[in-house]
Structures are given as structure tokens and as C-alpha cells.
Design a protein that fits this description.
Blueprint: H1 5-25, H2 31-55, H3 61-89, H4 92-125, H5 136-155, H6 162-193, H7 196-202
Helix pairs in contact: 1-2, 1-3, 2-3, 2-5, 3-4, 3-5, 4-6, 5-6
Length: 203
């Protein structure tokens, strides 16, 4: 199998994961800014590999598989880092409630990604993958999610947490949009899901 340029960029995005984790925990000044830059670089490669794949007509089955996996890994790992860091850096009842809210929101986002991925895989198996295409609300959700994660990475170790709370609010908005878009996928796939004949064939 020959790996083309867009797929190399996707692989590079995956390799940025351990870099971001290490930088996030290293005790040097500006580590939060560096972690945010690594995350933004990963986001840029996500746009660039798709652009190059279309521009150069260099699509591949491996690249189509790896691209969404890399995206979901980057978001999930970043959420885990932030939830763990938030839990250990907040004091008092308000801090506890804030940490619970972030943990629940992260669980919703990760759970939705797993569920939608499983739904798409099943729909592809029965030849109806086209029914679960990415909707506009999903793109809005992704944008809110990226902005929230960048703000939270920048502010997670800052002396003042004013922007951090903005990031928390944006993450909650992304969580609500996550549920909304997930219900849209479910609604599109529901006629196939309730088909008892297919259920018997799959068992």
C-alpha cells in the first residue's frame, strides 16, 4: 500500500497526540500555550489533508478510515487531559460542580462520537451509509468544540480563570449541539434500525 501526502498528514496528526500529552504535563513556563498550539496544528492538518486529497485527487481507503479516527482521538485525549487537570486544580463546592459539569460534557461528547461511529459502520454494512451524512449542525458543533478546547488548554494553568469559564460554557454548548446532531443521525437511521427483517438477517 502506497501512502500519499494527505494520509501522511493524517498520520502526523496522530503522532501529535503524545507530543500534546507530554507538553501538557511538563512543568515549564508556557506549556499551556504550547499544548494549545499543538492542538491547533493538529486541527490545521485536519483541514489540510482533506483539501489536498480533493485538490490532488489523492483519496484512499486507508486515508478515509484513518482521518475520522485521528479527529476523534485528538478530541477525546484533549478532553481527558482537561477533565483530569480540572479535577485536581479546583477547590470548594463550586469547583466540584464545575468539574462534574465538565466530566459529564466530556462523556457526552465522547459517547456520541462512539455511538455515531458505530451507527455509520452498521449503516455502511447494510448499504445505506448515505443516510447518515455530516449535517450543518455537526460542523457548528465541531467549531464550538475546537474553540472551547483551545481556550481551555490555554487557560487550564492560568492565574485568572475568566477565559477558562468561557471555555467551559462553550464546551457545554458543544455538548448540547453534540446531542442535537446525534439525534439527527439517529432520526435519519431510525427507519433502518426499526426494520425487524434486517435485525433477523444480522443475527
Amino acid at each position: 500500500m502506497r501512502i500519499n501526502l494527505p494520509t501522511w498528514l493524517t498520520l502526523f496528526r496522530v503522532m501529535l497526540l503524545p507530543v500534546m500529552v507530554i507538553v501538557f504535563y511538563l512543568p515549564f513556563r508556557g506549556h499551556n500555550l504550547t499544548a494549545a498550539v499543538v492542538f491547533l496544528l493538529a486541527g490545521f492538518t485536519d483541514w489540510l489533508d482533506g483539501y489536498l486529497a480533493r485538490r490532488l485527487n489523492q483519496t484512499s481507503a486507508f486515508g478515509a478510515f484513518l482521518d475520522p479516527v485521528a479527529d476523534k482521538l485528538m478530541v477525546a485525549v484533549t478532553l481527558f487531559l482537561l477533565v483530569e487537570s480540572h479535577r485536581s486544580s479546583t477547590d470548594g463546592p463550586l469547583g466540584n460542580w464545575s468539574g462534574i459539569l465538565m466530566a459529564v460534557t466530556a462523556a457526552i461528547i465522547v459517547g456520541r462520537e462512539i455511538s455515531v461511529s458505530a451507527l455509520r459502520e452498521w449503516m455502511a454494512q447494510i448499504g445505506e451509509h448515505g443516510k447518515v451524512k455530516v449535517a450543518f449542525i455537526g460542523k457548528v458543533k465541531t467549531l464550538a468544540q475546537i474553540i472551547a478546547l483551545v481556550v481551555l488548554l490555554l487557560q487550564h494553568d492560568a492565574e485568572t480563570l475568566r477565559l477558562y469559564h468561557i471555555g467551559e460554557a462553550l464546551l457545554v454548548v458543544a455538548g448540547v449541539l453534540t446531542i442535537w446532531s446525534g439525534l439527527g443521525y439517529l432520526r435519519a437511521a431510525w427507519p433502518s434500525l426499526r426494520d425487524d427483517r434486517r435485525a433477523r438477517e444480522d443475527t
